[in-house]
Write a structure and sequence with these properties.
The chain is α+β, with helices and mostly antiparallel strands. 30% of the residues lie in helices and 29% in strands. The longest helix has 26 residues, at 215-240.
Amino acid sequence: MGTTRVDGRAVGEMRTLVFHPGVAPQAMASVLVSFGNTQVICAVSVEDDVPGWMKAQGVSGGWLTAEYSMLPYSTPTRKKRSSNGKVDGRAVEIQRLIGRSLRAVVDLEALGERTVWVDCDVLQADGGTRTASISGSAVALQLAFRRMVQEGILESNPMKQLVSAVSVGKVNGETLLDLCYTEDSIAEVDMNVVLTERGEYVELQGSGEEATFTPDELAQMLALAHSGAQQILAAQKAAVNA
């Protein structure tokens, strides 16, 4: 595989991965995750209550949800904060993806009547903010649950396995792993893949941007995604066990 990419990486090479825990001391747990120049703070908070719909429907256990936002200075041109009740459709779609990805690996029944909030705030955006958010949130969540067990809040860790996410795509006819913004903005095909620690799929988000892709190209992208997920998993485990 050549090094034809804008940052000199090989086509199947991840950007530099960093998981730095403990950046938000008042959270139950927190992590600053970096995928190259993309940086996201992922913080976990716990509320001793559940949403009203769970009470109304008699649903037992707890709930886990996520919120995602890009700070105004996270992009080269200042991004306006949400105001006047306006809904940022992209942010809503991403935070729902983060929530689904995390709930797939958490035993909600074991949470008891609690709501776990995961806040993802993008400090710097250079492509892959949703994949970095999911991967960083998994580490923060594992650390939060470990702390809750140590403090006697939970009897056992409800997180069954780690989960990660990575982008793949086709740029100038070449299949690439972990797209930065420059690559993502010109990609003919863009896909985000969410995978559990065991290599099981949680979600695939893929589309051709005025282009198509073949079954063979899809297989290539999924193979790259599995390779990237293994690299992320290694960095996640190092952070969790540090």
